[in-house]
Specification:
The protein is mostly beta strands. The chain has a domain of about 80 residues. It contains 1 helix and 6 strands. The strands form 2 sheets. It has a 4-stranded parallel sheet, with no helix packed on it. The chain has a two-stranded parallel sheet with strand order 2-4. Strand 5, helix 1 and strand 6 form a beta-alpha-beta unit. The radius of gyration is 15 Å and the shape is globular. The termini are far apart.
């Protein structure tokens, strides 16, 4: 399992927790796992892609783990922007973020969508 790079659990409706075997993985898709409550691993790969769309039963500890992990890409369930996001907008208008530092490389872009 140490060479496992991608793990798709998409649509596993009875899955309750993600096992701790995935620490160095590159990609996890657990979208639509409607029973998923816990993530029992820490992600040591800072470039990991995490997809937990429509996993509305994820406990707060799991959500915090995803948010605190400095990953390349993460999709979280819910309809609220986490409090630590400092740039916010209301309504249907665009969100403009002014950066004072040098531009980020293309690999560091992020996307926000209103689902």
């Amino acid at each position: 399992m140490s060479r496992l790079k991608a793990f798709s659990l998409k649509g596993c409706r009875k899955l309750v927790s993600v096992p701790p075997i995935l620490e160095y993985i590159d990609f996890i898709d657990a979208s639509d796992c409607e029973s998923l409550e816990m993530i029992e691993c820490s992600f040591r790969n800072q470039f990991v892609w995490l997809k937990f769309a429509n996993c509305f039963k994820l406990n707060q500890e799991a959500r915090d783990l995803i948010i605190q992990n400095s990953c390349r890409y993460a999709v979280l369930p819910g309809g609220q922007v986490p409090p630590h996001f400092t740039h916010r907008a209301t309504g249907a208008g665009p969100l403009t973020i002014k950066l004072n530092e040098k531009p980020l490389p293309i690999s560091m872009k992020f996307k926000v969508s209103d689902c």
